[in-house]
UniProtKB/TrEMBL annotation:
Enzyme class, spelled out: lyase
PANTHER family, alphabetized: ATP-DEPENDENT (S)-NAD(P)H-HYDRATE DEHYDRATASE (PTHR12592:SF0), ATP-DEPENDENT (S)-NAD(P)H-HYDRATE DEHYDRATASE FAMILY MEMBER (PTHR12592)
GO MF entries: ADP-dependent NAD(P)H-hydrate dehydratase activity; ATP binding; NAD(P)HX epimerase activity
Keyword DNA-binding: no
Chain sites annotated for binding AMP: 185-189, 213
Gene this chain is encoded by: nnrD
Full protein name: ADP-dependent (S)-NAD(P)H-hydrate dehydratase
Keywords, in A-Z order: ATP-binding, Lyase, NAD, NADP, Nucleotide-binding
High-level lineage: Bacteria, Bacillati, Bacillota, Bacilli, Lactobacillales
Amino acid sequence: MKQLTEQLAQTVVRPRQRDTYKGSFGKILIVGGNAQFGGAAIMSASAAVYAGAGLVSVATDPVNRSALHARLPEAMILDAASSALETAIRQATVIVVGPGLGTDNAALAILKRVFAAVEQTQVLIIDGSAITLVAAHQLDYPNAQLIWTPHQVEWQRLSGLALSDQTVTASQQAASHIPGIVVAKSSQTHVFVGDDVYENMAGGPAMATGGSGDTLTGIIAAFAGQFQPLKQAVLAAVFVHSHVADIVAMNSYVALPTMIIRELPTYLKQLSES
């Protein structure tokens, strides 16, 4: 088992070249945020913007339009239930589906549309509600570069492993039957990439609050849109999220997602120049 380190992240996050523009740093589409859980999509989109994504769009319930524009004017918005969804998917380099999406029939319909429209060359991050829907309805895996970000209960649904059985060995075996990269979130997050297992030593209990997973998903999306290879981008994103939380926690009892998001640009600047 290997450990995620700042040295690994330094090899990924490098200074930007002068002859680049917003299209050089990824076109990210966040699909999520129903009428009850709009904050999840907003936090995921915010993390993507603050982690350097060039263009971020959010396909969500229209009720979230004012909140998103007020919190994150850098992001574009569209109705997830409209015909514009497929167009937005085709234009994206990285798609996130699941933050605050919900698990009702409307959410299932949106998820199926995402799975049908995504292409093999695109990165698809399957998070939150989308993982629950995949497990509950035994959906076929889409043909794309997949990244899964389950917390322990979602991992139980997807892998069939009870929480008490989620050892590293058992989880690695389960992950080997699921295409793509699995980021198994817990107090000691592990990333399963092929035959390799990476342990994240950063982070702590200050992160234990709603929205932390949505924030991580946004950072992964931003890194996947900016950096190559994909494996290294994901590993760096997982480390950066937790390490920035540790920085926040040095002076704060809790490391709220919005606090972590605000600190991202400063830390990434330091990381790129080290």
